[in-house]
Design goal:
This protein has 254 residues and is an alpha+beta fold. It is 26% helix and 35% strand. β2 and β3 form a beta hairpin. The longest helix has 28 residues.
Length: 254
């Protein structure tokens, strides 16, 4: 029966490809030789609909399996993420929030997966993964993109693109804002940009500032950068993962 249906699909596709729903003499002869095909499609007015139905019947399981397999291939262990906020805008009753400036953080989002992230004595070495500092994310370098000047710990960060790192050696942790460009994909020949924190050097540091650390009352499963306690004048940039939160205060530079 399956072979018969496939033959019927081929038959009706020939009708469609001919751009006509009229059955030719040759096709009429095919039906005469294969009366079972005629009975399958008896009462069907639109051949295209039945081809679609047969394709659905015969191919749906394999198509579904292929779709699931493709989806599995597309998934990455640490998906990319982005956090954003808007400042310096104004609210309009009809138009909404207007003329705001964007501040964004782009980063990879590792998942805890029941690991002890910060509880082991060598957690800094593990997170650095061979680099001198932590990329504070996964895969590519964490990036800060700001349309407006920010003031952090007395230093003005001009509008532009920066990379973010965290030095985990001491308590408190140290947030590093660097002018090192970030590679989109790893290129070992490109020595003018970083992938993750590998080959990071401090000569391009724009700011180093201590982070305020605290312990959360719950475990945050997937690493996240967030903007907290935002007001018209500023807020906090915070990293959350597992039960740890580390943040720095910033203000909009005048």
């Amino acid at each position: 029966m399956r072979i018969l249906r496939i033959s019927a699909i081929i038959f009706w596709c020939s009708v469609i490809l001919a751009s006509s729903s009229q059955i030719t003499q040759a096709q009429q002869e095919y039906l005469a030789e294969n009366p079972c095909c005629d009975s399958i499609f008896k009462g069907i007015a639109e051949p295209l609909d039945y081809v679609a139905q047969l394709i659905h019947i015969n191919l749906k399981p394999s198509m579904t399996q292929t779709s699931v397999a493709s989806e599995e291939r597309r998934r990455v262990a640490s998906p990319p993420g982005k956090s954003a906020t808007q400042v310096e805008g104004k609210h309009d009753e009809r138009e909404g929030y207007l003329d705001g400036s964007w501040i964004e953080i782009h980063y990879g989002r590792p998942i805890k997966r029941n690991r002890n992230i910060f509880g082991l004595s060598d957690y800094a070495e593990w997170l650095n993964d061979g680099a001198p500092v932590w990329r504070a994310g996964a895969n590519t370098s964490t990036q800060l993109v700001t349309d407006v000047a920010l003031e952090i710990d007395g230093t003005v960060i001009q509008p532009g693109e920066y990379t973010l790192f965290i030095e985990l050696k001491d308590d408190p942790w140290t947030l590093i804002i660097s002018s090192w460009p970030a590679q989109k994909t790893y290129d070992y020949e490109n020595k003018d940009a970083l992938f993750g924190a590998y080959y990071y050097t401090a000569d391009k540091d724009v700011l180093r500032t201590p982070m305020q650390r605290a312990t959360l009352g719950h475990s945050f499963d997937q690493l996240s950068w967030q903007f907290l306690d935002m007001t018209e004048t500023g807020g906090k940039i915070a990293l959350l993962w597992d039960t740890a939160i580390a943040s720095v205060q910033f203000s909009i530079a005048k």
